[in-house]
Write a structure and sequence with these properties.
Shape: elongated
Strand content: 15-25%
Helix content: 40-55%
Oligomer: single chain
Structural class: alpha/beta
Number of helices: 13
Number of strands: 12
Order of helices and strands: HHHHHEHEHEHEEHEHEHEHEEHEE
Strand order of the largest sheet: 2-1-3-4-5-11
Distance between the termini: 75 Å
Length: 353
């Protein structure tokens, strides 16, 4: 244990970089042994591996990624492309997804770069720029479309990637998604069972795959009961509070007999509640609501809303895990998953007369 004592007595000067040689000197070992121990090489015994890792951590050793990158051709970084729907507004529900992905990749020696896609940006150009810069080993993209050009491009150039959301492409690609079609169907059943004659679906923009899945499920639930869904009972809007508010006011003016809606975005639902109040309506007393999303925000709405919930943090971790495996060269067919949402029942689909 002499090496450990020496390691603890050594202190790094401010601004001094800790190298393999620093750790080796502290422990009285060779640089080669320290390097092999940090990689958990089979030629080094377990006690030495644990000792080297402990002292390296105490001294603040970090691998020289620049040197590793030159040797391996890897950047040890991933990129997460995040669309911004409106100027000056940030999607308030993505922070935990970023945290989940970043935490997972950091534990495996990767940095996470957030790549904003502004409203005026070409989505394909944003992804192409990342690839051509050579600044990341893999990419996470969200808000997929049925024939997503970004996915086609990434498949063509062979860049590892994973999508949060599916496409309708014939080519298999890594993805994590929820069963939005079943969520749409179940939301319709809940509102119909609560006695609402013609509930409304407020879906995200119909350019996105998951929005179309909501609609398919919604129509299927009505069809199972031999009911027809009029086109004016399905509305598409950007998933922001401002758009949710305007949609609610518009519906209250044009469809005053409406008594319920499934607002398939918790951000839009927040605005929808405000829009109802603006129009003299009140959720819970003369209008029923169900929503969907990856945070606990609906628990704190007034009134709290029943919601189809999934964990954005867990999704972030799963996306990172799939991307890490894709970078390692795993078969895309093994990197697809459908996550089930949990229904959190606040009884907001039932009016309290």
């Amino acid at each position: 244990m002499q090496g450990l004592a020496a390691g603890r007595s050594l202190r790094r000067e401010a601004g001094q970089r800790v190298t393999l040689r620093t750790v080796a000197t502290a422990l009285g070992l060779s640089v080669t042994t320290v390097s092999r121990a940090l990689k958990e090489g089979p030629e080094v015994n377990r006690e030495t591996i644990e000792l080297v890792k402990r002292v390296a951590g105490e001294l603040g050793y970090r691998p020289n990624l620049g040197g590793i990158n030159l040797r391996t051709g890897k950047t040890h970084a991933i990129g997460i492309v995040l669309p911004f729907g409106r100027e000056g507004e940030m999607n308030i529900v993505v922070a935990s997804l970023i945290e989940g992905a970043s935490r997972y990749m950091k534990a495996r020696g990767y940095r996470t770069t957030i790549v904003p896609q502004l409203q005026a940006d070409d989505p394909l150009a944003t992804v192409r720029d990342i690839v051509e810069e050579g600044s990341v080993d893999g990419i996470v993209i969200t808000h997929t479309t049925p024939q997503d050009d970004r996915v086609k491009y990434l498949l063509e150039v062979g860049m590892p990637f994973v999508t949060f959301g599916r496409t309708e492409l014939l080519s298999v690609h890594p993805s994590i998604d929820l069963d939005h079609e079943e969520i749409g169907a179940e939301a319709a059943r809940l509102l119909l069972d609560a006695g609402h004659h013609m509930p409304l679906l407020i879906a995200p923009s119909d350019q996105f795959t998951y929005s179309l899945q909501f609609v398919r499920g919604w129509r299927r639930a009505f069809s199972e009961r031999h009911l027809h869904v009029p086109d004016d009972c399905i509305h598409f809007t950007a998933a922001t509070p401002d758009n949710g508010r305007e949609t609610a006011k518009r519906i209250a003016a044009r469809n005053p007999e409406a008594t319920a809606a499934f607002v398939a975005s918790e951000e839009a639902a927040l605005g929808f509640l405000a829009g109802l109040r603006d129009a003299g309506r009140q959720a819970g007393s003369d209008f029923a609501l169900i929503t969907y999303g990856g945070t606990a925000l609906p628990d704190f709405f007034n009134p709290p809303l029943s919601t189809f919930y999934y964990s954005n943090h867990a999704i972030g971790e799963r996306l990172a895990a799939f991307l890490h495996r894709a970078i390692a060269g795993e078969d895309c067919a093994d990197l697809r998953e459908i996550v089930r949402a949990a229904f959190v029942d606040h009884q907001s689909q039932i009016l309290r007369r």
